Amino acid sequence: MNALREKLKKQKVIIGMVHLLPLPGSPRYNGDLDAVYDAAIKDLKALEKGGAGAVIIENFGDVPYAAENELINKIAFATMVARLRNQTSLPVGINYQFNDVETEWAVAYSCDVDFIRCEVFAENRIGPNGLFIAAGPRLMRLKAHYNKDVMILADANVKHTFALAEQPLDFTIESLIEGGADGVIVTGITTGVNPSVEDVQFVKKHAKDLPVFLGSGINEKNVNEYLPYISGAIVGSSLKKDHIVENPVDMKNVKRFMSKIK
After folding, report:
1. How many distinct structural domains can be found in the chain?
2. Of 51, 128, 153, 196, which residue is 20 to 30 A from 134 by alpha carbon distance?
Protein backbone atom coordinates (compact mmCIF):
# COMPACT_ATOMS: atom_id res chain seq x y z
CA MET A 1 0.00 0.00 0.00
CA ASN A 2 1.41 3.37 -1.04
CA ALA A 3 1.20 5.89 1.81
CA LEU A 4 1.01 8.96 -0.42
CA ARG A 5 -1.69 7.50 -2.65
CA GLU A 6 -3.76 6.58 0.40
CA LYS A 7 -3.35 10.01 1.96
CA LEU A 8 -4.38 11.72 -1.28
CA LYS A 9 -7.73 9.93 -1.08
CA LYS A 10 -8.49 11.80 2.15
CA GLN A 11 -6.85 15.21 2.01
CA LYS A 12 -4.72 17.79 0.23
CA VAL A 13 -1.10 16.78 0.83
CA ILE A 14 1.53 19.40 1.53
CA ILE A 15 4.96 17.93 0.77
CA GLY A 16 7.77 19.66 2.63
CA MET A 17 11.26 19.82 1.18
CA VAL A 18 14.24 18.27 2.95
CA HIS A 19 17.05 20.02 1.10
CA LEU A 20 20.29 18.11 1.64
CA LEU A 21 23.52 20.02 2.07
CA PRO A 22 26.18 19.30 -0.60
CA LEU A 23 27.07 15.62 -0.83
CA PRO A 24 30.44 13.97 -1.63
CA GLY A 25 31.34 14.44 -5.27
CA SER A 26 29.64 17.82 -5.60
CA PRO A 27 31.68 21.04 -5.80
CA ARG A 28 30.59 22.50 -2.45
CA TYR A 29 30.85 19.41 -0.25
CA ASN A 30 32.69 20.36 2.95
CA GLY A 31 33.92 16.89 3.92
CA ASP A 32 31.48 16.31 6.79
CA LEU A 33 28.78 13.78 5.90
CA ASP A 34 27.48 13.72 9.48
CA ALA A 35 26.70 17.42 9.18
CA VAL A 36 24.57 16.69 6.11
CA TYR A 37 22.50 14.17 8.06
CA ASP A 38 22.24 16.36 11.16
CA ALA A 39 20.82 19.26 9.14
CA ALA A 40 18.46 16.97 7.24
CA ILE A 41 17.01 15.26 10.31
CA LYS A 42 16.36 18.65 11.92
CA ASP A 43 14.45 19.76 8.85
CA LEU A 44 12.54 16.48 8.72
CA LYS A 45 11.45 16.74 12.35
CA ALA A 46 10.48 20.41 11.93
CA LEU A 47 8.25 19.42 9.01
CA GLU A 48 6.73 16.57 11.03
CA LYS A 49 6.04 18.70 14.08
CA GLY A 50 4.71 21.52 11.95
CA GLY A 51 2.09 19.25 10.39
CA ALA A 52 3.37 18.64 6.84
CA GLY A 53 1.63 15.75 5.10
CA ALA A 54 4.71 14.26 3.44
CA VAL A 55 8.37 15.03 2.74
CA ILE A 56 10.60 14.90 -0.31
CA ILE A 57 14.37 14.53 0.02
CA GLU A 58 16.47 16.29 -2.62
CA ASN A 59 20.21 16.71 -3.26
CA PHE A 60 19.61 20.44 -3.30
CA GLY A 61 23.16 21.40 -2.38
CA ASP A 62 24.80 19.62 -5.32
CA VAL A 63 24.78 22.64 -7.63
CA PRO A 64 25.48 22.93 -10.48
CA TYR A 65 23.36 19.84 -11.08
CA ALA A 66 24.49 17.18 -13.52
CA ALA A 67 22.64 14.60 -15.55
CA GLU A 68 25.11 12.00 -14.32
CA ASN A 69 26.86 12.07 -10.94
CA GLU A 70 29.79 10.17 -9.50
CA LEU A 71 29.10 6.86 -7.75
CA ILE A 72 30.10 8.28 -4.36
CA ASN A 73 27.42 10.96 -4.72
CA LYS A 74 24.74 8.39 -5.53
CA ILE A 75 25.69 6.17 -2.59
CA ALA A 76 25.78 9.13 -0.21
CA PHE A 77 22.31 10.19 -1.38
CA ALA A 78 20.95 6.66 -0.95
CA THR A 79 22.46 6.48 2.54
CA MET A 80 20.80 9.74 3.55
CA VAL A 81 17.45 8.59 2.17
CA ALA A 82 17.64 5.26 3.98
CA ARG A 83 18.52 6.88 7.31
CA LEU A 84 15.85 9.56 7.05
CA ARG A 85 13.19 7.09 5.85
CA ASN A 86 13.68 5.17 9.09
CA GLN A 87 13.05 8.28 11.17
CA THR A 88 9.53 9.15 10.00
CA SER A 89 6.14 7.61 9.39
CA LEU A 90 5.23 10.29 6.85
CA PRO A 91 5.13 9.45 3.14
CA VAL A 92 8.63 10.02 1.77
CA GLY A 93 9.65 10.98 -1.74
CA ILE A 94 12.95 11.67 -3.45
CA ASN A 95 14.28 13.94 -6.18
CA TYR A 96 17.81 13.28 -7.41
CA GLN A 97 18.96 16.16 -9.57
CA PHE A 98 18.85 16.37 -12.44
CA ASN A 99 16.45 13.88 -14.02
CA ASP A 100 18.64 10.87 -13.17
CA VAL A 101 15.78 8.38 -13.20
CA GLU A 102 17.98 5.29 -13.00
CA THR A 103 19.43 6.41 -9.68
CA GLU A 104 16.05 7.64 -8.44
CA TRP A 105 14.34 4.35 -9.17
CA ALA A 106 17.19 2.31 -7.66
CA VAL A 107 17.08 4.39 -4.46
CA ALA A 108 13.29 4.36 -4.32
CA TYR A 109 13.19 0.60 -4.81
CA SER A 110 15.88 -0.08 -2.22
CA CYS A 111 14.91 2.47 0.42
CA ASP A 112 11.14 1.90 0.47
CA VAL A 113 10.08 5.42 -0.48
CA ASP A 114 6.59 6.32 -1.64
CA PHE A 115 7.20 8.56 -4.64
CA ILE A 116 9.79 10.10 -6.91
CA ARG A 117 9.87 13.32 -8.92
CA CYS A 118 10.80 13.10 -12.60
CA GLU A 119 11.49 16.56 -14.00
CA VAL A 120 11.62 15.65 -17.71
CA PHE A 121 9.28 12.72 -18.38
CA ALA A 122 7.60 13.46 -21.70
CA GLU A 123 9.48 16.42 -23.15
CA ASN A 124 12.94 17.32 -24.41
CA ARG A 125 14.32 20.31 -22.52
CA ILE A 126 17.49 22.36 -22.14
CA GLY A 127 18.82 24.57 -19.36
CA PRO A 128 21.90 25.55 -17.37
CA ASN A 129 22.42 21.93 -16.30
CA GLY A 130 22.46 20.53 -19.83
CA LEU A 131 20.25 18.83 -22.36
CA PHE A 132 17.60 16.43 -21.10
CA ILE A 133 15.74 13.91 -23.22
CA ALA A 134 12.35 12.55 -22.18
CA ALA A 135 13.05 9.99 -19.45
CA GLY A 136 9.59 8.43 -19.31
CA PRO A 137 10.34 5.52 -21.65
CA ARG A 138 13.44 4.52 -19.67
CA LEU A 139 11.78 5.05 -16.28
CA MET A 140 8.70 2.99 -17.08
CA ARG A 141 10.87 0.12 -18.29
CA LEU A 142 12.82 0.25 -15.04
CA LYS A 143 9.53 0.16 -13.15
CA ALA A 144 8.44 -2.87 -15.18
CA HIS A 145 11.73 -4.70 -14.55
CA TYR A 146 11.95 -3.77 -10.85
CA ASN A 147 8.32 -3.36 -9.96
CA LYS A 148 7.29 -1.58 -6.79
CA ASP A 149 4.37 0.61 -5.79
CA VAL A 150 6.25 3.92 -6.01
CA MET A 151 4.31 6.87 -7.41
CA ILE A 152 5.91 8.86 -10.23
CA LEU A 153 5.17 12.58 -10.03
CA ALA A 154 6.17 14.12 -13.35
CA ASP A 155 6.69 17.77 -14.21
CA ALA A 156 5.14 19.55 -17.15
CA ASN A 157 7.40 22.40 -18.31
CA VAL A 158 9.71 22.06 -15.30
CA LYS A 159 11.33 25.15 -13.80
CA HIS A 160 14.92 26.14 -14.68
CA THR A 161 14.57 24.69 -18.19
CA PHE A 162 13.23 25.58 -21.61
CA ALA A 163 11.72 23.40 -24.32
CA LEU A 164 14.17 22.16 -26.92
CA ALA A 165 11.21 22.09 -29.30
CA GLU A 166 7.93 23.63 -28.25
CA GLN A 167 5.00 21.30 -27.72
CA PRO A 168 1.52 22.23 -26.50
CA LEU A 169 0.98 21.85 -22.75
CA ASP A 170 -2.15 19.76 -23.24
CA PHE A 171 -0.13 17.40 -25.45
CA THR A 172 2.55 17.11 -22.74
CA ILE A 173 -0.06 16.31 -20.09
CA GLU A 174 -1.67 13.71 -22.34
CA SER A 175 1.78 12.18 -22.88
CA LEU A 176 2.32 12.01 -19.11
CA ILE A 177 -0.98 10.18 -18.71
CA GLU A 178 -0.29 7.81 -21.60
CA GLY A 179 3.25 7.17 -20.36
CA GLY A 180 2.10 6.06 -16.91
CA ALA A 181 2.86 9.00 -14.60
CA ASP A 182 0.92 9.01 -11.34
CA GLY A 183 0.72 12.77 -10.87
CA VAL A 184 1.50 16.07 -12.61
CA ILE A 185 3.65 18.84 -11.15
CA VAL A 186 3.27 22.41 -12.42
CA THR A 187 5.84 25.10 -11.59
CA GLY A 188 6.86 28.65 -12.34
CA ILE A 189 10.03 29.47 -14.22
CA THR A 190 12.37 29.19 -11.19
CA THR A 191 12.38 28.14 -7.53
CA GLY A 192 10.03 30.30 -5.48
CA VAL A 193 8.16 31.63 -8.51
CA ASN A 194 4.55 30.52 -8.80
CA PRO A 195 2.71 29.65 -12.01
CA SER A 196 -0.48 31.56 -12.73
CA VAL A 197 -3.76 30.26 -11.37
CA GLU A 198 -4.91 30.02 -14.98
CA ASP A 199 -2.01 27.70 -15.83
CA VAL A 200 -2.87 25.45 -12.90
CA GLN A 201 -6.53 25.41 -13.94
CA PHE A 202 -5.48 24.40 -17.46
CA VAL A 203 -3.33 21.55 -16.14
CA LYS A 204 -6.13 20.37 -13.86
CA LYS A 205 -8.58 20.36 -16.77
CA HIS A 206 -6.33 18.18 -18.93
CA ALA A 207 -4.90 15.94 -16.20
CA LYS A 208 -8.21 14.10 -15.91
CA ASP A 209 -7.97 11.78 -12.87
CA LEU A 210 -4.28 12.40 -12.15
CA PRO A 211 -3.52 14.42 -9.02
CA VAL A 212 -2.01 17.84 -9.75
CA PHE A 213 0.69 19.30 -7.52
CA LEU A 214 1.97 22.86 -7.39
CA GLY A 215 5.75 22.66 -7.47
CA SER A 216 6.95 26.21 -6.79
CA GLY A 217 5.92 29.59 -5.48
CA ILE A 218 3.13 28.60 -3.12
CA ASN A 219 2.96 30.46 0.19
CA GLU A 220 0.55 31.20 3.01
CA LYS A 221 -0.79 34.27 1.19
CA ASN A 222 -1.67 32.60 -2.12
CA VAL A 223 -2.28 28.97 -1.13
CA ASN A 224 -6.06 29.23 -1.06
CA GLU A 225 -6.12 30.60 -4.62
CA TYR A 226 -4.64 27.29 -5.80
CA LEU A 227 -6.23 24.75 -3.46
CA PRO A 228 -9.43 24.19 -5.50
CA TYR A 229 -7.32 22.99 -8.44
CA ILE A 230 -4.60 20.91 -6.81
CA SER A 231 -4.27 17.71 -4.80
CA GLY A 232 -1.21 18.99 -3.01
CA ALA A 233 1.94 21.06 -3.25
CA ILE A 234 5.69 20.71 -2.89
CA VAL A 235 6.81 23.52 -0.60
CA GLY A 236 10.34 24.70 0.11
CA SER A 237 11.08 28.40 0.50
CA SER A 238 7.85 29.27 2.33
CA LEU A 239 8.68 26.85 5.16
CA LYS A 240 12.25 28.01 5.66
CA LYS A 241 13.56 30.52 8.17
CA ASP A 242 12.91 34.02 6.81
CA HIS A 243 11.48 32.28 3.70
CA ILE A 244 14.99 31.91 2.26
CA VAL A 245 15.40 28.57 0.46
CA GLU A 246 18.95 27.96 1.68
CA ASN A 247 17.93 28.31 5.35
CA PRO A 248 16.74 25.51 7.66
CA VAL A 249 13.06 24.65 7.96
CA ASP A 250 11.27 26.81 10.53
CA MET A 251 8.63 24.81 12.39
CA LYS A 252 6.64 28.00 13.09
CA ASN A 253 6.45 28.71 9.36
CA VAL A 254 5.29 25.15 8.73
CA LYS A 255 2.52 25.48 11.33
CA ARG A 256 1.49 28.87 9.94
CA PHE A 257 1.35 27.51 6.40
CA MET A 258 -0.58 24.39 7.40
CA SER A 259 -3.14 26.50 9.27
CA LYS A 260 -4.14 27.99 5.91
CA ILE A 261 -5.01 24.62 4.37
CA LYS A 262 -8.78 24.37 4.26
Report:
1. 1
2. 196
